[in-house]
Amino acid sequence: LGAVLSFALWFNWSHWVQLSHNWTQRDQFWRYYSQRRPGEPMAAFLMNWRGETFYSRNTVKQIKDNAQVGMQSYAAQPGREWSLVEHARLGNLKAAVGDKNVTLIDKDLNNKFVIVTIE
User: Fold this and answer.
1) 103 three-state secondary structure
2) C-alpha distances out from residue 73 to 7, 17, 68, 87, 112, Å
3) Would you tell me the crossing angle of helices 16-23 and 26-35 to the nearest 10 degrees?
4) What DSSP string runs through 62-90?
5) What mean pLDDT, rounded, does the chain reach?
6) Where does the pLDDT of residue 20 fall: very low under 50, low under 70, confident under 90, or very high at 90 and above?
């Protein structure tokens, strides 16, 4: 009983916390908040995870319906824009923004999501 209780305590207070960096969007938004300049927006490209809404304090622009056109108009704004995207959909985002420069911000920060800047 003691061993089971010890394992349960370690599993819930240590193991899950260490794993959370691999499957949440929290670290991406910490990076965004530390590196953005005033007035730079964040968009979520083809996502509906709801973590992006939570961690952005409900300020993220969701681009999911007619994503090609939505991302083109988002990238056409003046200045630098940020976007959160799944690693697997990064090629779709680059194709949608056309000749704009897409820069990955620490692609190894998370195994599912990545943030990029669009200039």
Assistant:
1) strand
2) 51, 38, 9, 22, 25
3) 60
4) EE-TTHHHHHHHHHTSSS-EEEEEEGGGH
5) 90
6) confident
Amino acid at position 83, single letter: S
Distance (Å, rounded) from C-alpha 85 to C-alpha 87? Answer: 6
Tokens for 87, please give them.
């690693």
What sign has the CA pseudo-torsion 110, 53, 47, 44?
Answer: negative
What are the Cα distances from residue 50, in Å, to 13, 25, 31, 76?
24, 10, 18, 25
pLDDT of residue 37: 94
Q: What is the DSSP letter of 32?
A: H
User: What is the edge-to-edge ordering of all strands in the sheet holding 113-118?
Assistant: 61-63, 42-45, 81-86, 113-118, 102-105
